[in-house]
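Sequence only, no structure available. Ideas?
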Amino acid sequence: MSSRTVIHGGLVITASDEIHADVLIEDSRIAALATPGSQSWSADRTIDATGKYVIPGGVDAHTHMELPFGGTFASDTFETGTRAAAWGGTTTIVDFAVQSVGRTLREGLDTWHAKAEGNCAIDYAFHMIVSDVNPETLKEMDLLIEEGVTSFKQFMAYPGVFYSDDGQILRAMQRSAENGGLIMMHAENGIAIDVLVEQALARGETDPRHHGEVRKALLEAEATHRAIKLAQVAGAPLYVVHVSAMEAVAELSRARDEGLNVFGETCPQYLFLSTDNLAEPDFEGAKYVCSTPLRPKEHQARLWQGLRTNDLQVVSTDHCPFCFTGQKELGRGDFSKIPNGLPGVENRMDLLHQAVVDGHISRRRWIEIACAAPARMFGLYPKKGTITPGADADVVIYDPHAEQVMSAETHHMNVDYSAYEGKRVTGRVETVLSRGEVVIDQREYTGRAGHGVFTPRSTCQYLT
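Reply:
I predicted one. C-alpha cells follow.
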C-alpha cells in the first residue's frame, strides 16, 4: 500500500533556500514541492505547518550509543538513544563501531551491527574506530568502504586504549588517500596529557575541574597541527572531531586557507558550556567531564566565528551519556577515572535554533551545520540533509516560537541529568517524519524500535 502525505502552510528551510511551499511525500520519499495552494494533491495524511518551519531531519554525525568506556557503558542504548534523537528532531545518527586492539575491523563492525539492528527508531550509519593499525587492518579499510562505512576514527589521546602513534596514523592516512576514506581525528596530545594527569594527582588535585586544566588547549592545538601535517604528507583528507579550543580553530583555518582538504566539527557543549561548569562544587562538575574538555568562555566567540566563516563545517553532539549516580561517581577522588562524555543528542537542534535567535548564525546556516553539511561530509547527501524531490522524507515541523526549559525531568535520553538543566530556549520540535513515517506526532512519540535501518554511505562529497 502506498501512502501520500502533504505538509502545507510552512516555511521550508534548507541550507540554500527559504521558501513558503507545500511538500508532497509519497511513501518514504519527498515527491514534490509546490507554491502554497497551487496543487490539489490528494493525500492520506495532511499536516498543517502554518506559522512553523519545515526543515530536514537533523544528521548527528558523532554519537556513542552503548560505548564501553572506563569500566562502564554509555547509558543510552541504540533504542533509547535514537528515540531521544527523534524527540530532538534528529533523524539520522552516525555512530562509532570500535575495533579492539588485537581484533579485526570486521569483528568490531559486526558487534555494532548486532547492537543496533532492529533497535533503532531512526536511520543509522557507522564510522569505524581504528585502534590497531597493521597490514590486515589497512586491507580491511578498503572492504569496509565497499560496504558503506567510509570514515575511520583515530585517537592521538588515550594511550593504552584507543591511541595511535604518528606512524600508525600516517599509514592509515596513506590508505585513505588511496581508497577515498576520510580519517577522523581526536586531536589531543595524549602522551603529554598523561604526564600532566599524573603530576596533578600527585599534588592532590583530584576534583573534576582539574580534568580541564590538564587537557590544555595548547595540546589540542599541537595535535591538530600535527594531524594536519601528517594528512598533508599522506595527501589525505582530514576531519577533526569535537574542536573546543580557539588555538585549534586557528590551525584549521590556516590549513583551509592553504587549500587543504581539512574539516572541523564542534559540539553544542563547547558553544554553550564552559570551565565554569567543570568547577561546580560538590563533584557536580563531573557531569561536564568530556574530552576534548570544556574551555573558558572566551573560546566560544572563536567557535561561533569558525561556524560563520566555514572554518568549522559541522555541529555534532559526541553524545556519550553516563549517569551521575553510579557512573560519573566512579571518579570521586580521582578525576582521571570519571567516564568521559556528555548527553546531548536530543538538545542539538534546539540549541542551534537558539543560536539563530541569539544572532550567532542564520536560519540557513543552522540547517547547513546540523543537516546538510554532515550529510555531505559523510556521503549521505541528498538522500539525507535536505528537502528536495527524491530525498528521504526525513522532515521536521519546527515551532520557532514555542518556549521550553531543558531538564532531565522532561528529556528522553536515558541519563539522570541534563547538561543544560534550567536553560530556557525558544523553538521546539513538533512533528517528525522518518522516511515518511511519523515518529513524533504533535509531541507524542509514535515511532518504534526497528523502523530505523542501516544506511550505507558514499565517500566524502567535499573533497577537491
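DSSP finds 13 helices and 20 strands in the chain.
Hope that gets you unstuck.
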